[in-house]
Automatic annotation (TrEMBL):
Stretches assigned to the DUF1214 domain: 106-213
Annotated InterPro entries: DUF1214 (IPR010621), DUF1214_C_sf (IPR037049), UCP009471 (IPR012038)
Protein's recorded name: Membrane protein
Spans through the membrane: 35-56
Record organism: Methylobacterium indicum
Hydrolase recorded as keyword: no
Top-rank taxon: Bacteria
Keywords assigned by UniProt, alphabetized: Membrane, Transmembrane, Transmembrane helix
Length: 236
């Protein structure tokens, strides 16, 4: 008579039929769960990296996010050239290649809107008039995102074949008897101090740089009447 030796567990009872296959079955069931968990982790990492790159690109596209002092349509940026400038400002300068004015060298003011708070429209005509805060010299320029691409595409430089003017300095602008000036920002030719509207596909920004000015160390002494006004005169 043949007998089969069956290994008994420690409890002394024989294992039920099919029990030896249960651990392997559980392992097979756990594999899809592990794969799903790994997939979720990879998806979360990819999503976080994408959001991080997108927000970093948005925050360093050339517009300073913090530290501005609003003066009518203008915003003064007294600390963009300081040693303790925030990381966003440093990243913007590294990306654009712009060299900021140091704290004792001057003051930067920018404007994206007119006196009524409306965004500067490239098809409109604006009058930038008044006086500037005391300084040894100043420059007024107009900038537009995408200008370099437009010039590289071969757009016409102007009626004279020369590159259009992009700004005025304190020594070349025409003034009245009181020492005040008026600059016309327009896409068409204007008499007097005409500043052509730049080509491109982005927003318009006016930039006023004051060099060797006493207000650079303390913007609290700046008055709203001490900066030029930006008035929309005509729109097609």
């Amino acid at each position: 008579m043949l007998t089969e030796n069956v290994a008994l567990p420690a409890s002394g009872r024989a294992a039920p039929p099919g029990s030896r296959f249960r651990p392997r079955l559980l392992q097979n069931l756990a594999c899809p769960r592990q794969v799903g968990t790994v997939g979720l982790v990879l998806y979360a990492l990819a999503l976080g990296a994408g959001l991080g790159l997108a927000t970093a690109n948005w925050a360093t596209r050339g517009r300073y996010p913090f530290g501005g002092v609003v003066l009518n349509a203008w915003t003064a940026w007294p600390k963009i050239g300081a040693r303790d400038a925030d990381p966003y400002v440093r990243a913007i300068h590294a990306r654009t290649g712009e060299v900021p004015l140091a704290l004792g060298e001057g003051l930067l003011l920018t404007a994206l809107t007119d006196e009524s708070g409306r965004r500067l429209d490239p098809s409109c005509r604006y009058r930038i008039a008044g006086a500037t805060p005391p300084s040894r010299a100043w420059t007024l320029t107009v900038e537009r995102r995408g200008r370099a691409k437009a010039e590289a595409a071969g757009e016409p430089a102007g009626e004279t074949g020369m590159a259009p003017r992009t700004g005025f300095t304190s020594t070349e602008v025409l003034r009245d008897r009181d020492g005040r000036f008026a600059v016309t920002l327009s896409p068409t030719v204007q008499p007097g101090n005409w500043l052509p509207m730049p080509a491109g596909e982005g927003s318009i920004r006016l930039v006023l740089r004051l060099y060797d000015t006493p207000v650079a160390a303390s913007t609290g002494v700046l008055e709203r009447e001490g900066v030029p006004s930006i008035t929309r005169e005509d729109c097609p």
